[in-house]
Amino acid sequence: MKTASKYWNLVRLDSSGKIKITEISPAKQFFHRQVSNSSDSENIPDLTIQKDLIAIKNSGNENNISADRCLRCFISHQIRQACIQLDIQFGREHGFSRNDLFIYTLNDTLDSFRDSVAGKQASQGKYKSLAVEILETFDPAKANLSTWTVRYVKQNRELQRFLLEQGVYLISSWAILNDTNIKQVNRILSEFHNLTSGEIEQASILLSGYHNVYRRDRLKSRQSKGRKCTTPSTEQLERIADLINRQGLVLSPEQTLTQLEKLAGLLREYRIHVRGGKMKQESFDNTEINTEGMQASVIQDEEETVDQGDFLKSYQQQFQQSLDSSIETVITTRLSKFKGKKAAKAPQFITALELFHCQGESMSAIAPKVELQAQYQVTRLLKLKELRIDIRHQMLQLMKDWTMAQTKLEDLASLKQRESEIELALGEQIDLVLNEAEKEASVADSTQSILAKRICEYLDRL
Amino acid sequence: MTNYNIETDNLLLDFESFSETGIELSDEQIDRAVELSDRIIDPERQWQTYLNSLALFGFTAWLEERDNTLVINSDSCSVMQPSYASYIDGVFNLTVGEYKICLLTNGVAIDEFISIDRAVVDLPEYIPHFYILVNVVEEQAEVIIDSFIRHDEMMQRKQTANISADADWTYEIPLAWFNPQPDDILLYLRCLESSTIALPDSATTITDDIQRAIESSIPQLQSGESLHQILTWSQAAPILSNSSLLNWLYELQTAQPSLGDSLAALRDRLFNTISEVTQTAINVKSWLSNELDELAQSLSWTLFPSLDLAPSGLRDLEVVNRESPPEEFTAIVTQLRDSGEDIPPDARGAFRDFDLGTYALRMFVVTWEVEETEGIPEWSLLVVLGAQPDNYLPQGLKLELKEGETILDEKIVPEDTNDSYIYTQVIGELQEQFIVSVALVNGEIITFPNFVFD
């Protein structure tokens, strides 16, 4: 434990909705008196402190209120941290800030702490802050408080609803169980979680019983398909329990639910592990690409007068023509897909494309102008990255004679290289431009490339 | 403290977001996917077929949105045919232009390994140019084209890493092998010559000895047990590679098991299917030298003794003892001769019993050499259809004789008749083959393996 102050500083929102950190003096005094009276206090692990605090809180003696306050202060820091992480991961692309998330989560004022201590009966039916909910359900024997807090933040309904509006969602446990087959479960539980063969056997029976009931019901019921999976009903749990009982796994419906949630939790952990690895891999890949790009541009600087010059000079006319014709083909194709229910999207698309390429506006600025709520919806409407790739591919096809003379199209590597050359010639460091475009300061860049200029000219002619 | 940040970050990796490249599925597409999965009996495969169908619809939408000129053909795609989807995972028999594509579907259970059905990796019939990994988020009705790997690349890596198939006939392929830039598929589909990626051109060989393996496993196959628990891979490969055999298997598992007669009927259909597939035929010439070939034996044909040796027949077929097929046969030949058929003494005949619908029928075949024009040897095939003891020929029953697709003759049991038999005859050159089939009014039909005189 390095920052003991988080046990007596409460993070909350002030009346203007800004973060305010308030020192709770009684909590601080209590903490110093009860917990960190030893000189070595900075080295006591959080886990030990939390166990002690919980014990005091449940003891019913006069200090229980203070212990409760300390724990809730700690929780408030963890909630804040979780929201910051969500912001970092999705905020920019999906147009929300951490402050938007705090509103749903940092709602503990400590006012109701008596309720929390007085037990469930007193607080039933009354409004409960997220922190109180977290503390009430927390069991130090089963988890640490940080993890428990993050889990609760993630599952918070209000927060989930807000995030979904922004295009960010949490996969439900039931969807994860639906899509995991028995073979996978066996491998994951044995290789990743090191469970015993007995435990794995039970999990397989449980999952198979769940599949037989829940998947089938989902396929049968017209309303649920393609919508968020809900917790199995009591009736479904009874059927699952009945099925697994026949396989020798005797559980009540309630226990069945608990065990299913536990299994989903294990699968979720593995999933997070894989995604973590995948994200690292992707950012590694991107670094590689970027480095390559940088190297290419260095070489290009040196040889620009020769290579780039020759290249553009000898093919300039053909290049321009195929560029313009490719832009037209690709945009026309896109527009032709907006029909029927989607017909309204065509003018939206043109307007957004124009605002981005000709006016240099950012996606979030464009959203309200084309009657969309969120930035991610504009990104999805335009699909710029795909648009650019399609234009390049179209050019490759149009310039086939030229391409064929240079390289056989039967060679995978040179085909890919040829595409990169066109990308370079178009002055598009696509990913760079796009990333930059999202930062308000440098949106003007999006109007500078050859491609942007030609798209713009094409739109003017429409 | 250091610990808790890592933990918090990781726990939040749980969230997903609608990506720029995601494809939304419509309610109609979801309904259609449910329909397609509805015909699959095995629950595990049913859900997978549902996801596979969603992957196909998403992929199709993605391609159509990106390109007007690429031609997708999914008419005979695996998910459209329950006999494929019931036994082989993956979306195959799918083409884009000249390219063969196989979609591999991932649900939301993200895994380091992608499970690929051995059939789409090892059977030349299904091997695609590209395996494309498609993420399906069923809960959000969203599909994302994730990554892909070329077939040649896969084979190379598989060999280097020394990966072999699991006991359940799947390969567990590391996700890391897949190229994470799906737009490169489009680059290849649009600009690359398909011949650049070489595919094996030989087909899976089907020999008629598989019928024994299958025949002895019929009860297990009927029980719905997984194929890999019943057959070895080399036994299963010919079945999996062939749509007629897969159809047979699917019918075997889905048909309402009616009592008694069903097993024999299924056996018959299996043999017929196999002989169609392997293009084997019953060689009746060997009958003349008192031999039944292997196929005829397995199809329970019984050869009668030479006509010279047969007792002289009764004239009246009505009083023939049908419990004794040789007596019945002699009576038939006698009557046919009386009515003008020129059946020489060295002709040989055989019979077999079979079931069609609820009718227990019996077929006699007589064959002999003919040389009407000197120097041009020919052969005759005479087919007589009757019923087994205590049975009768139902009205409207049709006996059909074909050469290839051409119908040479058909005989139908007329209304108000007392005839116990219908028959037909054909004479052909030695290389000609004839196909005999029997059909009920309701369309139920049995086609016998080709008859040849070789």
Characterize this entry briefly.
The complex is a heterodimer of chains A (462) and B (454). Chain A has 462 residues and is an all-alpha fold. Chain A has 23 helices and 3 strands.
Question: How do the helices and strands line up, and which of them pair or pack?
Answer:
The complex is a heterodimer of chains A (462) and B (454).
Chain A: E1 9-13, E2 19-23, H1 25-34, H2 46-59, H3 64-94, H4 98-105, H5 113-118, H6 120-123, H7 130-137, H8 145-155, H9 157-165, E3 168-170, H10 173-178, H11 182-192, H12 197-220, H13 234-246, H14 253-303, H15 307-337, H16 345-357, H17 363-369, H18 375-382, H19 384-398, H20 400-406, H21 412-425, H22 430-438, H23 450-461
Antiparallel strand pairs in A: 1-2
Helix pairs in contact in A: 1-3, 2-3, 3-4, 3-7, 3-8, 7-8, 11-12, 12-13, 12-14, 13-14, 15-19, 15-23, 16-17, 16-23, 17-18, 19-21
Chain B: H1 2-12, E1 15-17, E2 23-24, H2 27-38, H3 43-66, E3 72-73, H4 82-85, E4 91-96, E5 99-106, E6 113-117, H5 119-122, E7 130-137, E8 142-150, H6 151-160, E9 170-174, H7 183-191, H8 210-222, H9 227-230, H10 233-240, H11 243-254, H12 261-278, E10 281-283, H13 285-288, H14 294-298, E11 302-303, H15 325-338, E12 348-356, E13 359-373, E14 376-387, E15 398-403, E16 406-412, E17 422-429, E18 435-439, E19 445-447, E20 450-452
Parallel strand pairs in B: 5-7, 10-20
Antiparallel strand pairs in B: 2-8, 3-4, 4-5, 6-9, 7-8, 11-12, 12-13, 13-14, 14-17, 15-16, 15-18, 18-19
Helix pairs in contact in B: 2-3, 8-12, 11-12
What this model shows, in words?
The complex is a heterodimer of chains A (462) and B (454). Chain A is mainly α and 462 residues long. Chain A has three domains: 4-165, no CATH class; 173-274, no CATH class; 292-461, no CATH class. Chain A is 70% helix and 3% strand. Chain A has helices spanning 25-34, 46-59, 64-94, 98-105, 113-118, 120-123, 130-137, 145-155, 157-165, 173-178, 182-192, 197-220, 234-246, 253-303, 307-337, 345-357, 363-369, 375-382, 384-398, 400-406, 412-425, 430-438, 450-461, and strands spanning 9-13, 19-23, 168-170. Chain A has a two-stranded antiparallel ribbon. In chain A, strand 1 and strand 2 form a beta hairpin. In chain A, helix 3 crosses helix 8. Chain A is globular. By secondary structure, chain B is an alpha+beta fold. Chain B folds into three domains: 8-196, 3-Layer(aba) Sandwich (PvuII Endonuclease, Chain A); 208-273, no CATH class; 281-452, no CATH class. In chain B, the strands form five sheets. Chain B has a six-stranded mixed beta sheet. A five-stranded antiparallel beta sheet of chain B has the order 11-12-13-14-17. Chain B has a four-stranded antiparallel beta sheet with strand order 16-15-18-19. In chain B, helix 2 (27-38) runs antiparallel to helix 3 (43-66). The model of chain B is unreliable at 1-8 (pLDDT under 50). Chains A and B meet through helix 3, helix 8, strand 3, helix 10 and helix 11 of A and helix 1, strand 1, helix 2, helix 3 and helix 7 of B.
